[in-house]
Design goal:
single chain; 414 residues; alpha+beta; 12 strands; ten-stranded mixed sheet; 52% helix
């Protein structure tokens, strides 16, 4: 039998422990652990959810990887590349690639009776995956876009619709500047809302045939190709793989191709997301420290109160190591109970926010209207193990106070 564990269990479950002077200290220590773990779980859940939501919206608008013209780095007035069906089949045949789709862009301006707005017309065809926009559709419908027929129908954001006082079915006049000003009248078929202002304030989706005609391109010329992966974790690996395939390669018109992933296209946003990781580590360190110090204070109070018991155990032959292990086991029971409450609070917050959306955000600042949360089983397990290990390790030093207690001097505590 593990004698220290047996004594610790009797101490923890004993009636005298519930009525002792150290009871408030034990409760404070337990709730310190609970609140610390709950805060860590909530912080990790929110940060992981926020980063995932931002990444998903970036990927939804532009996929994981883009192949475009090497001579145009950051411009919506793009130089085209000629992309054949065989090139699309080759890129889409990779095991990591889920889908490949062509697109074309044309910057212009929307003008209504009382307002105007700059925009980018993004042309897509039948092969384009529009599930992202269907999931964020607010009004109307997502049209069936074509790369051969012009329907003059567009999908625009709620932000732009509110600025220009538009609704589904309205006609809008758009203007494009090349050698001269060209105009097109389009019909609002649907309105979406992603709360991602950088894109909501800019893009209108329409037929690729219309954009190709405005750009005066040939049938196989496009602004680029978007490639979506099965697993975003393999982004760098797949980027290098595709880049090695197109490096030095030219299309039939002599234009060189360039491969860039979503992190390279939007470095400022991903740099911002990396800063959030620093916040996570700061929160984890602070909460671990708070939980550990509350446990240290609780353990010291328990040791002082149980001085007489320590003296009795030593007089019966128990060594300092055995007595220390007894009180460390007692601390583990307190920590375990605190962790159970912490997990319950953290999971309750996750469920309420995930399905009830209790806490709101300003979409103009945070790109979403509610606090996003995500449950990662690996992070959940690591946080629990880390909390238990860190708390117990912080208690090893204070437990050496037991070595200073002698059986003779402990009699005064009777």
């Amino acid at each position: 039998m593990n004698f220290p564990l047996f004594i610790a269990r009797r101490l923890y479950r004993g009636e005298d422990t519930r009525q002792s002077a150290s009871r408030p200290a034990v409760l404070i220590a337990m709730w310190g652990i609970a609140i610390g773990l709950a805060v860590m779980l909530i912080a990790v859940s929110v940060i992981v959810g926020f980063k995932g939501e931002v990444r998903n919206k970036l990927v939804g608008f532009g996929s994981h990887i883009q192949v475009s013209n090497l001579n145009v780095v950051r411009s919506y007035e793009t130089r085209p590349i000629a992309v054949s069906d065989s090139m699309m089949s080759g890129w889409g045949s990779h095991r990591e690639v889920a889908h490949a789709q062509r697109f074309s862009t044309k910057p212009g301006m929307i003008k209504t009776a009382d307002s105007f707005q700059g925009m980018v017309l993004k042309g897509v065809g039948e092969e384009y995956d529009l599930d992202f926009f269907r999931n964020h559709l607010c009004e109307g419908e997502v049209p069936v876009f074509s790369d051969s027929i012009t329907s003059n129908r567009v999908l625009l954001s709620r932000t732009m619709a509110e600025k220009l006082h538009l609704k589904t079915g309205d006609k809008i006049d758009t203007y494009y500047i090349q050698e001269n000003v060209r105009a097109r009248r389009l019909t609002v078929a649907g309105i979406y809302q992603t709360n991602f202002s950088e894109f909501d304030n800019l893009f209108l989706l329409t037929d690729m045939a219309l954009v190709r005609r405005l750009n005066r391109w040939e049938d196989d010329q496009v602004s680029g190709v978007e490639i979506r992966l099965h697993e975003g974790e393999k982004l760098d690996e797949c980027t290098w793989l595709l880049a090695s395939e197109v490096m030095g390669r030219q299309d039939r018109l002599g234009e060189e191709l360039c491969v860039r992933n979503v992190e390279q296209l939007h470095p400022q946003l991903f740099a911002w997301l990396e800063i959030l990781d620093v916040n996570i580590w700061v929160i984890l360190a602070l909460m671990t420290g708070v939980a550990g110090f509350t446990m240290i204070s609780g353990l010291l109070i328990i040791i002082i109160e149980r001085t007489a018991m320590i003296g009795v155990l030593k007089s019966m032959g128990a060594g300092n190591g055995m007595v220390r292990r007894t009180f460390l086991w007692f601390a583990v029971f307190v920590i375990g109970r605190g962790m159970a409450w912490g997990n319950a609070i953290g999971l309750l917050f996750y469920l309420l926010q995930r399905y009830g959306a209790l806490f709101k955000l300003d979409p103009e600042t945070y790109y979403m209207d509610t606090v996003p949360v995500a449950f990662n089983p690996l992070y959940f397990i690591l946080l629990n193990i880390g909390t238990l290990v860190a708390s117990v390790l912080m208690l090893i030093g204070p437990s050496y106070l037991i070595a200073r207690i002698h059986p003779a001097t402990s009699m005064r505590y009777e």
